[in-house]
Amino acid sequence: MQPVISIQNLSKTYASGFQALKNINLDIRRGEIFALLGPNGAGKTTLISTICGIVRATSGTVHVDTHDIATDYRAARSLIGLVPQELTTDAFESVWATVSFSRGLFGKPANPAHIEKVLRALSLWDKRHNKLMTLSGGMKRRVLIAKALSHEPKILFLDEPTAGVDVELRRDMWHLVQSLRETGVTIILTTHYIEEAEEMADRIGIINRGEIILVQDKAELMRKLGSKQLSLQLAHPVDAVPGVLSDYGVTLANEGSELVFAYDAEIEPTTIAALLRDLDRAGIAVKDLKTTQSSLEDIFVSLVHTGN
Predict the structure, then answer these.
(1) Measured between alpha carbons, how far is 51 from 45 in angstroms, rounded to an integer?
(2) Per-residue model confidence (pLDDT) at position 299
(3) Is 45 a residue whose pLDDT tops 70?
(4) What is residue 31's three-state secondary structure?
(5) For residue 54, what are the CA distances in angstroms to 45, 106, 162, 206, 220?
(6) Do domains 5-223 and 226-294 have the same CATH topology?
(7) What DSSP character marks residue 235?
(8) Contact 233, 286 (CB under 8 A)
(9) Burial label, 287 (beta-carbon count in 10 A; 0-12, 13-18, 19+)
(10) How confident is the model at residue 208 (pLDDT cuts 50, 70, 90)?
(11) CA distances from 175 to 23, 121, 179, 256 (A)
(12) Cβ(80)–Cβ(137) under 8 Å?
């Protein structure tokens, strides 16, 4: 299937000489949720702004559903809804008026039923006649999302959409994201809440210092890079790791009351069973055991640190 967004050799250098993007190559699949992760200043917002035609690239191309964002801007941009980081709204307009106006900017005919559907989905219906200046920060964030959805885009960009919002709004927004994906909308998000990307995304892209350092299906990324740890709580503390376990790389913790075995996805399935048998043969009783797995945040921090 042809990607809905295709980015080739994209670079952006500002007049100051700062290179914000360096030879980006990236395809976004139609209908997926793609999470773009990276530290502050990594180039996430610049990349989104370039795809949306807000920032002009120094070199390279961006195609949105085959439309070149530079030479066929109007057609490409009409397919995109953008929720920016900044709360930029006309303070004296009503919620209904500003969302309806956004739809008109894309040449779409009036559709009160669609506007009502969007406002209800974002719990804004009761606020439709309120001026924006009277709304809380969380409600203004909802209005930005409503504006982005007003013209029924096929692609939705969410740039740090839940930064500084309350838990209820965050939950509502992710329910909305899931429902949009079910209708075929492609969603690209950046977020500092990595647990959201871990829960929601189909694929993960990591950008650092203007370069894409990894793009991977989330499940495959977790399988390849997610380390696991088996912790064995001993019935009686020991002074040292039993010699019979030396080949496993087991370490001692909690003043000799716990043995820790770290392993990855490539481990043979029989290895842990063999370790437990050897432990039993050494006469060491296990009181309890638990396993933990590294999170996407652990993987992200490791990759960014390595990239530095």
Answers:
(1) 10
(2) 60
(3) yes
(4) coil
(5) 11, 15, 22, 22, 33
(6) no
(7) S
(8) yes
(9) exposed
(10) confident
(11) 34, 9, 6, 46
(12) no
* Closest C-alpha among 90, 85, 100 to residue 150: 100
Amino acid at 75: A
- Rounded average pLDDT over 196-210: 85
Per-residue pLDDT for 295 more than 60? Answer: no
Q: Which residues 6+ apart lie within 8 Å of 132 measured at CB?
A: 89, 90, 91, 92, 93, 94, 95, 98, 140, 143
**Segments making up each domain of the chain, as ranges:** 5-223, 226-294
CATH class of residue range 5-223 = alpha beta
Please report the sign of the dihedral spanned by the C-alpha atoms of residue 118, residue 122, residue 126, residue 130: negative
The pLDDT of residue 228: 72
pTM for the predicted model, two decimal places: 0.73
Token pair listed for 1: 């299937």
User: Which of 178, 216, 241, 188 is CA-nearest to residue 300?
Assistant: 216
Nearest to 144 by CA among 164, 285, 71: 164
Q: Which residue has 């961006």 as its token pair?
A: 62
β-partners of residue 286 are 234
Pick 226-294's CATH classification: 3.30.70.980, 2.40.10.10, 3.40.50.300, 3.50.50.60: 3.30.70.980
**Residue 206, SS3?**
strand
